Amino acid sequence: MTDFTVTLPGVASAAADEAVRSGRLSVAQLLDALQHAFVVLDAQGRVVGYNTCALQMLELPAELMQRAPLIDDVVRWQAARGDLKGDPERLIERVWHHLRATRASGQPHVYSYTTASGRTLQGATVAVPGGGWARVYTDISRHAQALAQLRDSEERFRSLTELSADWYWEWDAQGRYTRLEGRVVREQGIAPTFMGRTPWEVPAANRPKPEDWKPLRDAVAQGRPFKRFEIQRTLPDGRTYWFAISGEPVRDAAGRCVGWRGIGRDVTARKSAEATIQRLAYYDDLTGLLNRRAFQDRLRQAQASSVRSGQWAALLFIDLDDFKDVNDAYGHAAGDALLRACAERLRAAVRAEDTVGRLGGDEFVVLLEDLHAQPDQAAWRAQHVAEKIRQVVQQPVVVDAHDLTVTPSIGITLFAGQDESAADILGRADLAMYHSKAAGRNAVQFFDPSMQATVVQRATLQRELRHGLRDGELCLYGQPIVDVRAQVCAQEVLLRWHHPTRGLVPPGEFIPVAEQSGLIIPLGQWVLQRACGLLAAWAHDPQRAGWTLAVNLSARQLRQPDFVDTVRRALHEAGADARRLKLELTESQLLHDVEDTIAKMEALAALGIQFALDDFGTGYSSLAYLKRLPLTQLKIDRSFVRDLLTDPNDAAIARTILQLAQSLEMDVVAEGVETAEQFEVLRAMGCRLFQGYHFGRPVPLEPAQPLGPTPTGFGVTIIGAASPSPA
Ligand SMILES: Nc1nc2c(ncn2[C@@H]2O[C@H](COP(=O)(O)O[C@H]3[C@@H](O)[C@H](n4cnc5c(=O)[nH]c(N)nc54)O[C@@H]3COP(=O)(O)O)[C@@H](O)[C@H]2O)c(=O)[nH]1
């Protein structure tokens, strides 16, 4: 046998050499101990050595090998048996080519083949020093089988993802896509958008807010599997589709989550089927409004919600007058077009959070929630919306070049709580609608006669107020504000209405009506102009030149974008000193858009105007924003002054307000001082300014003046009575 060195895996070569040299281990024993087939060729390609395993693994007959055959003969034999496929002479040529190449390169030649009996063998040929080659064969059948199974499994997996609507994905431990496979992925071209990003980093139509991803992110953070997490996405081509992903964590040997894998499924078809079912079950096909069943559900929800909020809600029942005539005269298609137009108008006439439904035929319903905690205020608002609806519905609709017009009869009922059924509420509104029909159609009626009376009264008051303003029935009264010596140092302007038949109407009655109708804007502007006129006149009167004049503001005035300019102009036109003008606000007014309010107040304060916070202690005063406002005065509400002498709580509140004002460097006016005792106690507490009947009731500051033309004029809508009458 040719002399060469063997290195066996797991046996140090020096130790093996030594064992062979010392004769303790023959090379033959050594080679036979191997689990690998071993064949040695001399320089002519003759088999000069082999181990037992070679006969077994290569399934070569011992007689052949014992003859020391040339490799050519062995190849012919193997080809004849079918272990090697192809023409034997060409196979021999190939074998020699590789033998020479290994010698020339010094690199082993590794190859594999499958025998006729089905074994997969891997052979490695190395050139040995002095000529000749050693060939080592390893049976890799199991490994090859495992690989084939793996390939099969991959193929099956590929078929699955190619033929189905599902696709496969993998994420890293942070939830970023690392692999996406499947026909859908390819066809939709979504891989570039997703790879390297987490699902929540890719915009989704149904999950616009970070909290919408919480269930998925929690599962990822906690290493939990998740199922059918639905996401709506927009494709690069603009189409939207829905898919659902399910996944499970991939763990390492130590059980740590090292990533995620799962499937995605296109569920667009199911979603659209669901949407259709939903639409058919809950929506009216013709108009897209809620149908009777869905509307009744909403009504029940509104009842439950009114219990929680303590607010009244209203149900409006709308029936089109003589709708049948339209159908008869112009056909059903025209009638349908008119109903669709009505539905759109109803939707446009109410707030987004209100609900509109169609019960069938020409019957529509509108649900108005959170109207007001007081039923009369709620009724007033419901009446306002009903009137708006009445106006918009009767506008002509053009259908097939015809101007179609219908009027609505509207019934309203208010509700709060869950004591009655939704059907009862609907029944009441329906009955009220019949009253509207009976009242001559194209009208609004309440179910409850007292509600009806209230809204009619308010509508009348509003109309009369507008006339009263025009006819000079309003005038300014003033109530003195005094110092510790009971000397007048200021006046508060208080509006009065001398109604021709009702007498003196208190502002508590007509200011809310003016606020709701928008009439407060020209009215408030007029008060400001008159007040500035008074200040300018007082400037020439030594007794009054030092007085300030306090004017009450409404929330709506303050919200006017040009409010600062309006005040500036009033001062300028009257030639009044801004430092003598004080504007009184209540806490609730300040809650609306605090930043805008502060900006306006600061702009006015820069002119020298002072601000007082009225009715202090009755609202939700937050000291945080109180500090930010340019206030110079707090007014202790008269409810605390009234029982000051008998109720220790009220006394404590008055004292606290005085201390607070001192630390905020503000004045305090105690309102509603009616007795000398109250005056004394407040003075002892450190109060320096007082207002109340004890010092003087409101008295006229000037004769009544008609409202002159103002920049805003009367550009306000006056709501008519239930049966409209010209204003
Ligand atoms: N936006 C505007 N609001 C105005 C205007 N004019 C008045 N008002 C607001 O109307 C509310 C009612 O005012 P009024 O009926 O005039 O009542 C005032 C006083 O008469 C009353 N008062 C004063 N002293 C006493 C008293 O000793 N006892 C007692 N029972 N009542 C008294 O208090 C009212 C003044 O309160 P206040 O405004 O809080 O300082 C009233 O809330 C006005 O804000 C206007 O032009 N615009």
Commentary on this structure:
By secondary structure, the chain is an alpha+beta fold. The chain has 4 domains: about 15-140, PAS domain (Beta-Lactamase), CATH 3.30.450.20; about 145-275, Beta-Lactamase, CATH 3.30.450.20; about 285-445, Reverse transcriptase/Diguanylate cyclase domain (Alpha-Beta Plaits, 2-Layer Sandwich), CATH 3.30.70.270; about 470-700, EAL domain (TIM Barrel). The protein is about 45% helix and about 25% strand. The protein has 27 helices and 27 strands. The strands form 5 sheets. It has an 8-stranded mixed barrel, surrounded by 4 helices. It has a 5-stranded antiparallel sheet with strand order 2-1-5-4-3. A 5-stranded antiparallel sheet has the order 7-6-10-9-8, with helices on both faces. A hairpin with a 4-residue loop joins strand 6 (about 165-170) and strand 7 (about 175-180). Helix 21 packs parallel to helix 23 (about 595-605). It is elongated and about 145 Å long. Residues about 1-10 and about 705-725 have low confidence and may be disordered. Ligand LFPHGCPZ binds near residues 493, 524 and 693.
